[in-house]
Amino acid sequence: MNNSWNKLIYKGWTPIYDKFFNVGPFSKARDSLFKEIHFRPGDRVLFVGVGTGADIERLPYDQLEITAIDYSEDMLQKAKDKFRNTSITFLKMDAQQLEFADASFDYVIGSLILSVVPDSKKAFREMVRVCRRDGLVVVFDKFAEPGKGLSIGKKTLRHVIKLLGTDIGVSFDDISSTERASVELIADEGVMFGNMYRRILLEKVC
C-alpha cells in the first residue's frame, strides 16, 4: 500500500463507505469507542484519518475543539459536508507526518487508519507525539491477535485485501513497540468479530 494507491481506492470507497462501515456491527463498535470517556467542554480532539466523519457523530462535537485530518480529499469532503455548520477544522494531511506541535491535543483518535497507512509505526508515533501528557490516544482498528500468527486463509486473503486499501495482518504490539515508554495501556478489548477489531486506549505518560 502507498499514499497514491490509497487516494485512488478511497475515492471509490467514499460514496458507499458509510453503507458498509457505519452500520450493523461497525456502528455498534463505533458506539462503544468512547464509553467511559468523559469529554469536557473545550477539550482539544484530533481525528487522524477521519474518513467520512462517522466517529464525530458519537461525540458532543459542538462542545469540543475538534480538528480532523485525512489524506483523501474525497473522504474529507464527505465529512465536511456532514458537519458544514460546525466549528470543526478539516485539513488534508498525512497521518504519517502530522503538521502539529508536540502535545497539541487532549485526545487523539485513530479509527481504521493504522491498518491503512503505508507506515503504521510512523503514524502511531505521530499520534503519540501530538497528544499532551496525561491525554488519551484512542484506537479502533483490526489487528492480528497477539501471540498468534495469521491463519492460512488470512495469509492468502491479506494480499488481495491490501488492494482494497487495508491490511488484516498488522500487529499492534509491533506498531507500538517504540512508544512503550511514552504511553500506558488503559484498555484493550475486542469489539467486533471476536478480537479481530479492537478498542485500545492509551494514556500519554511522558
State the main characteristics.
206 residues, alpha/beta, Rossmann fold, 7 strands, globular
Explain what the structure shows.
InterPro entries: Methyltransf_11, SAM-dependent_MTases_sf. GO terms for molecular function: S-adenosylmethionine-dependent methyltransferase activity. This is Methyltransferase domain-containing protein. A seven-stranded mixed sheet has the order 3-2-1-4-5-7-6. Strand 6 and strand 7 form a beta hairpin. Helices cover 30% and strands 25% of the residues. The chain contains seven helices and seven strands. The protein has a single domain (3-204), classed as Rossmann fold, CATH 3.40.50. It is globular and about 50 Å long. The model has no long low-confidence stretch (mean pLDDT 93). With 206 residues, the protein is of the alpha/beta class.
Produce the secondary structure layout:
Elements: H1 3-13, H2 17-21, H3 24-32, E1 44-48, E2 65-70, H4 73-82, E3 89-92, E4 105-111, H5 120-130, E5 131-142, H6 152-162, H7 172-175, E6 183-192, E7 197-204
Parallel strand pairs: 1-2, 1-4, 2-3, 4-5
Antiparallel strand pairs: 5-7, 6-7
What is the rounded distance between the termini?
32 Å
Secondary structure tally, helices: 7
Radius of gyration, rounded?
16 Å
Strand order of the largest sheet: 3-2-1-4-5-7-6
List low-confidence stretches.
none
Structural class: alpha/beta
Number of distinct beta strands: 7
Oligomer state equals: single chain
Coarse morphology: globular
Query: Residue share in helices?
Result: 25-40%
Using the coordinates above, name the CATH class: Alpha Beta
| CATH architectural arrangement | 3-Layer(aba) Sandwich
Q: How many domains comprise the coordinates?
A: 1
In CATH, the topology is named Rossmann fold
Question: Quick one: CATH superfamily?
Answer: Vaccinia Virus protein VP39
